[in-house]
Amino acid sequence: MKKGFQPILDYVEGRMSITEFQHLFETDKSLQKALKLPMDKKYTAFRDYNYNVFNFLKGDYSYKNKSWNCISLRDRVQEILCVFLDNQQISYKRYPLYMEEYRFLLQIQPDYIDCQDDSILQPIIDSIPKDLSKTKRIAMGKEKVKALFKYDKTYPRWLQEAEWPIVNGKPLVFSHQKKAKGGDIRTYYYFYDPDTKEQTVVEQLD
Questions:
Q1: What residue ranges do the domains of the chain occupy?
Q2: What is the mean pLDDT of each run of 10 residues along the chain (206 residues)?
């Protein structure tokens, strides 16, 4: 085994936590050197990062200056490292929990929500009994998520990706949306805090 590769395998195969791996990513020179090995140019996601995984994880908005210890990033980082190991022709057995958690996260959310905030979603996931069938767990999760993301009459019809605002750890209530007049291509989405009544407006372009 080449120096620096063991932490990658340990995370991918479930022997190392994401917190420990992220710490090594920031401090371990041999791990950094391994992740700078060139990727095949067929992996175009790395094109803007000199075709190496280290630059990608260090520079991409989704990963830089963030804790990776959340449902979505635990899975995404694992997926990226699997691609890296495939590129290096190193065999592994992928630990399935991170993918299963992320898949469940997607299954319990309608498209109009698309929340990635673990501080909101993890308590919901933890509250669903593990002994229920998969179908019942998903149904219960959907009910709990919808109950948390409230709207007055109907849910937002986003033009782009969902951008439901969260303030002080709580989703705001959706009021309504309004398309700008004339040739303006903007649509405005109006939300409010049910306690303070303070309004927040999200703007998207058609």
A1: 6-87, 166-205
A2: 89 97 97 96 94 95 89 94 96 96 92 85 90 94 94 96 92 96 90 96 93
